[in-house]
Specification:
This protein is α/β, with parallel strands linked by helices. It is built from six helices and 16 strands. The strands form four sheets. Strands 3-2-1-4-7-15-16 form a seven-stranded mixed beta sheet, with helices on both faces. Strand 5 and strand 6 form a beta hairpin. Bound molecules: ribulose-5-phosphate.
Amino acid sequence: MTQDELKTLVGRAALQYVVPGEIVGVGTGSTVNKFIEALAGMKDRIPGAVSSSVASTERLQALGIRVFDSNEVRELAVYIDGADEIDGRGYMVKGGGAALTREKIVAAQSRRFVCIADESKKVEFLGKFPLPVEVIPMATQRIVRQFEAMGGTAQVRQKDGQPLVTDNGQHILDVTGLQIREPLAFESEVNQWPGVVTVGVFAHQKASVCLLGTASGVRTIA
Ligand code: 5RP
């Protein structure tokens, strides 16, 4: 099976976690796009979704799924999202699509986080995928030096020759060369650096369940 087919497989499999009658939290990325396509088939059984990005909002609305502001909803039963890396404990690196801040917000208001990914995302330790960190631009160079002191190399993500601007009007640093052995402690530390909006380690908001697309079908890791 191709990577695209594996994404379709887990995107469809995630439907079983959607609670009829309840608003669903929706992440961002190519795997989530498969989930959104599948969700359209049961749109009459849910009031709608809370979305983690402008891109997902547009996709949901184009398929006739109502999108609620996160402030309109107290708690979500489930949040479905992809990952750039996931380890055996459900800790993840996310933000390859630059939506990490809103993803963390929606994950925090959800009782359950269902991660959908093809098997290439499963790792023993986080850190191989360049770690996305959303930052306030005036703090960029100091944060770059803080990562250097940790052994990492941080670069401002570019789009069309310019720094990429997130849905929140900020920039993204991609950090290579880190081995994140203690994701909870790492996330807590980097989060308190002034100018860091969100670090792409999802340890405090880890996955409750991971649906991994493999050549032999969907493997569920809970
Ligand atoms: C976006 C994300 C995505 O969930 C992550 O990048 C995985 O994307 P894809 O499903 O396209 O591989 O965190 O910010």
